[in-house]
Specification:
Elements (H helix, E strand, L loop, with lengths): L9 H5 L7 H15 L9 H25 L12 H14 L3 H14 L6 H11 L12 H26 L49 E2 L9 E2 L10 E2 L6 E4 L11 E3 L2 E6 L2 E6 L4 E8 L6 E10 L2 E10 L2 E8 L4 E8 L2 E9 L6 E8 L2 E6 L2 E7 L8 E8 L4 E11 L3
Helix pairs in contact: 2-3, 4-5, 5-6
């Protein structure tokens, strides 16, 4: 594989002129390594992560070569923000205030960065134990057992029918008159149940990309934000209008067996592709569970997805600036409502909301052009927002928000269009 930086010499890879002073070389190195450090690409597609790792190794090699060449003394460790300590302090503050779910979400984020930080693992285990649901009393049958039972039942039914026909002395009936409920050559298998509390995995997997780290996307660990506060500035359309004609499709997601969207799970939540659809499940109180990836055409685009949700809210993530800063465009199917809010740390600012006609499956769309965001439900424009925060970003995603109820969201037909 040939990378675009392979032909660059040590000075060029750091972006300095030959003969630069030790201080200039050090400053250039810190700038370049901060741009391509693997932690910065934890939520990026796998190809971007691998590219960043190769370039970071080349940057380190160039810096070491120039140090030896110019006999530069080993630089002191730069004073910089201790993000791990800040996360740990936030978790402790949540625990002290009794916000145990928020503490659990913060500790999980810290665990992805450094699994061995202080007593992070112990605290997570204690908090997860508090929210571990009691085991169900019913017998759980495997798919193989269900299949064997169904086949046995079908065979017994056929034998009984054949014996009854013998007793009646009637001729065998044609194949088209077979007993209803028995299919030709297959046995129906019940689809996975959507329970109020999804199956809980043992412990969240610790990986550089969980989020929930996946190839070109990362699904996040559960995050719980404070109660939303209402912002005064968004511009909202007064009445629904028919959406404008869109441009050509440039990307269409595959949620089949080879889907590049992430599959991951933790205590009380899971994300993954199944039967050409993408499912996000979350227990009550877990907040936002999401997966995201990067648009192939930049921040100006049109996103469309069909969504069906049971429980609370589900929809699109827009302008994903990071795990603590993004926009959510959601619908509540049971209430017939939509909302758009901005998350900034533990604060949520409401940008738009209202009643909307919803069915069992609804088409959500968002037209992003600069600071203008047009929100659509079932081909109708329900709101137009002009906002500079968070700034436009090519990353987008799918999200389910479990507030008071266990929530299951099913997504399909995800498309990205160019602006017309």
């Amino acid at each position: 594989m040939n990378d675009d930086f392979e032909q660059l010499d040590d000075y060029a890879i750091l972006g300095v002129r030959p003969g630069a002073s030790p201080a200039e070389i050090k400053q250039a190195y810190l700038k370049q390594i901060s741009l391509y450090h693997p932690d910065r690409f934890a939520g990026a597609p796998r190809a971007d992560q691998e590219y960043a790792a190769r370039r970071a190794r080349r940057i380190n090699q160039a810096y070491q070569n120039l140090r030896r060449r110019r006999s530069i003394a080993t630089p002191a460790t730069p004073v910089q923000r201790d993000y791990q300590a800040e996360l740990y302090a936030q978790a402790q503050a949540h625990l002290a205030a009794g916000r145990r779910l928020q503490a659990l979400a913060t500790l999980r984020e810290l665990q992805r960065i450094n699994p061995w930080y202080r007593d992070c693992q112990t605290l997570i285990a204690e908090l997860e134990a508090e929210y571990q649901p009691p085991p169900t009393g019913g017998m759980v049958m495997s798919r193989r057992a269900l299949l064997a039972t169904a086949v046995g039942g079908a065979a017994l039914a056929l034998l009984g029918w054949y014996g009854w026909r013998q007793l009646q002395g009637a001729a065998p009936t044609p194949a088209t008159a077979a007993t209803p409920g028995i299919s030709s050559g297959s046995v129906p298998v019940p689809s996975p149940p959507v329970a109020a509390s999804p199956t809980i995995a043992a412990s969240p997997t610790v990986a550089g990309s969980p989020t929930i780290a996946a190839s070109p996307t990362i699904a996040a660990s559960p995050t719980v934000a404070a109660s939303p506060t209402v912002a005064a500035s968004p511009t909202v359309a007064t009445s629904p209008t028919v959406a404008a004609i869109d441009g050509p499709i440039v990307y269409q997601a595959s949620f089949g067996p080879d889907s590049d969207w992430p599959a991951a799970s933790g205590v009380g939540w899971s994300v993954g592709a199944r039967d050409n659809r993408y499912l996000i499940q979350a227990n009550a109180g877990l907040g936002d569970i999401w997966a995201f990836r990067t648009s192939p055409i930049g921040a100006d685009m049109i996103i469309e997805v069909e969504v069906s949700v049971s429980g609370d809210w589900a929809g699109l993530i827009l302008r994903f600036n990071g795990p603590q800063r993004y926009l959510s465009f959601l619908v509540h199917q049971a209430r017939g409502q939509f909302r758009c809010d901005e998350r900034d740390g533990d604060r949520r600012a409401l940008l738009a909301e209202g009643a909307v006609a919803l069915s069992d499956r609804n088409l959500l769309g968002a037209r992003l052009e600069g600071q203008t965001i047009e929100l659509r439900v079932n081909q109708q424009t329900v709101s137009i927002i002009t906002s500079a925060t968070p700034p436009p970003d090519p990353r987008y995603g799918l999200v389910a928000r479990a507030e008071q109820n266990a929530t299951t969201a099913t997504f399909s037909n995800l498309r990205i269009r160019a602006l017309a």
